[in-house]
Specification:
The protein is mainly alpha-helical and 292 residues long. It has a single domain (55-257, 267-290), classed as Methane Monooxygenase Hydroxylase, Chain G, domain 1 (Up-down Bundle), CATH 1.20.58. It has 16 helices and no strands. Protoporphyrin IX containing FE is lined by residues 63-64, 67, 114, 117, 122, 133-135, 137, 140, 249, 252-253, 256-257, 262-266, 268, 271-272, 275. Its EC number is 1.13.11.11.
């Protein structure tokens, strides 16, 4: 009688894994992985334009497309976090924000793949990109708007695309995640200044000292305001992560095109560097200087 150990050894030597009886192989009637995910469409949506074909164009396309998929999920999660906060459901909203942070890390880590593209390899595909640029990513603007970095000029970029224009115009006028957090705090009895609650949602937030006072009280006694304190720190994590993405983009752009202008018509790295001065939650940063 061969022992179990002998049988194991035979399986290992054969170096193959037999299918189990229950594993499905006939999808003439049943739902398959590819059908559920619409993989035919997804995997036939890469259309390199270079002629003669350039090996690296597929990397360039896939890096952008995967970023757009993750941005789609970010928009979905941020919208949901915003609705949950509006309904006073703080803990479920925090769960959404935890996922947001992981997606951001994935997006930032992904830069390492594109960083393998050398300046000369990029130069081979640059002519075929023509005037297209990540600057025209409406989902990236949607994330910025949801977090509060509103800018009406960005909406004009989508005059040619009704659906994108409509989405951004709606988000421009709707309260940001930060706005709904402040309204939540007000409902919970925090002394959020009225002019903060009534502020024009289409504008980016401007530092308000009265609001810093509210956060200073929270940071002075975290134990008494734990949920609020935790949410403030989650928001700072999200801004931090967003800045990391911006910085990695800037670094990859610098090593790829130096100080040449971008395909979208900007000065390139100088324009991108100025984005590092933008903040979503000014008071959550200002409060740090108040902590004794
Ligand atoms: C070698 C690759 C890349 C280069 C050389 C590059 C270059 C640039 C430049 C120069 C700009 C400024 C606008 C312009 O004039 O075009 C820009 C903006 C932007 N790019 Fe890229 N990019 C690259 C990859 C990516 C990838 C993979 C994404 C992912 C979606 C992306 C997303 C964006 C976004 C969202 C903006 C707007 C940023 C802002 O408004 O501050 N880029 N890019």
């Amino acid at each position: 009688m061969p022992s179990d150990a002998d049988a194991d050894a035979v399986t290992r030597t054969a170096n193959r894994r037999d299918l189990e009886e229950g594993i499905r192989t006939d999808f003439s009637e049943d739902l398959s992985y590819g059908t559920y995910l619409d993989l035919d469409r997804l995997l036939s949506a890469q259309h390199p334009r270079s002629d003669p074909p350039q090996h690296d164009e597929l990397l360039f396309i896939i890096q952008h497309q995967t970023s757009e998929l993750w941005l789609k999920l970010l928009v979905h999660e941020l919208r949901s976090a915003r609705s949950l906060l509006m309904a006073d459901e703080l803990q479920p909203a925090l769960k959404r924000l935890a996922r947001v942070k992981h997606i951001q890390h994935t997006l930032t880590d992904q830069w390492a793949v594109l960083a393998t593209l050398t300046p000369s390899e990029y130069a081979q595909i640059r002519p075929w990109l023509a005037t297209s640029s990540g600057f025209q990513s409406y989902q990236y603007r949607a994330v910025e708007f949801l977090l509060g970095n509103k800018n009406v000029d960005m909406v004009r970029v989508f005059d040619h695309d009704d659906a994108a224009h409509h989405m951004l115009d709606e988000l421009l006028h709707e309260p940001s995640l930060y706005d709904v957090f402040l309204a939540y705090l007000s409902r919970r009895g925090y002394a959020i200044p009225q002019d903060v609650l009534d502020r024009d949602a289409t504008q980016p937030p401007a530092l308000h000292e009265g609001l810093v006072d509210v956060f200073a009280a929270v940071y002075a006694a975290p134990g008494e305001h734990w949920g609020v304190y935790e949410t403030c720190e989650e928001l700072v994590d999200i801004e931090d992560n967003f800045q990391e993405w911006r910085f990695r983009h800037l670094q990859v752009v610098t090593r790829t095109i130096g100080h040449k202008p971008g395909t979208g018509g900007s000065s390139g790295v100088d324009f991108l560097r100025r984005a590092l001065d933008l903040t979503f939650f000014p008071e959550l940063y200002a409060v740090r200087s108040r902590i004794p």
